Amino acid sequence: MLPSPAPAPATAGRPRPAEGSAASESRFQRRLGEILRHATEVFCEKGYEGASMRDLSRATGMSLAGLYHYFGSKERLLYLIQKETFTTIVERLKARLADVTDPAQRIRIFILNHLEYFVANQSGLKVLSHEDEALKNGFGSELAAIKRQYYRICVGLMDDLKGERRAEFNSRTAVMSLFGMINWIYTWYNPRIDGTAEELAEQMNAFILSGVCGVSASRARDMQFATTNRQPTKRALKGRAFRRAARQ
Are 186 and 122 in contact (CB under 8 A)? Predict the structure, then answer.
């Protein structure tokens, strides 16, 4: 099952299969996902400008003629990669925030949701970061709207934290600083050294609380554990023991 032929850029969306059964829809989604994953690896390795449709054809296993027929251009493939990524992240985030009211915990969820996706898709994060300005011809406007929605969600979370803590900080500056941390992990993240996405999210959330609310990092971590009703990880306990020893 292959995507429908490429529409004009002004109406470009996720390609849909022909009318059929749920099984056909599932096969379509799997095949499209495979194509986008292979295309992501090509863009990650060669860069958008350096990648050719022939490179993408070889990587995806589609004929060059088939790739042009169903996607039209490498620009549309990049568009679909970015749309799939941002739509997935935003939808997951909204679902995870739905039943959580504590402002600090909601920021932690934002960070964890972002890191979990990109720790598992580091090539995708590199492509999104490096090829942010590559889309032209009307492909970028829809993506810009999704990105603005994502940014505004984070600003809203920061505003809620500021109000709840009666803190004084610039929400935009805090949000852009946070994005600066979470969007470049593909350049340095090593699971053996840096731990899981959840452990990394806990540390980054502690940094944010410490920075914007004037709370010490250790206190921010304690507040986080109290909010989530979880016991500290062994790594956190070791860190506390080290700090106590250093003070003695």
Answer: yes
DSSP 131-165: STT---TTHHHHHHHHHHHHHHHHHHHHHHHHHHH
- 14 lies in a domain? yes
pLDDT tens per residue, range 21-68? 666 667 777 888 899 999 999 998 999 999 999 999 999 999 999 999
Per the structure, the count of domains in the chain is 1
DSSP per residue, 68-101: HHHH-SHHHHHHHHHHHHHHHHHHHHHHHHTT--
pLDDT tens per residue across span 59-73: 999 999 999 998 999
CATH code, 48: 1.10.10.60
In a domain, 98, yes or no: no
Which pTM value belongs to this model?
0.73
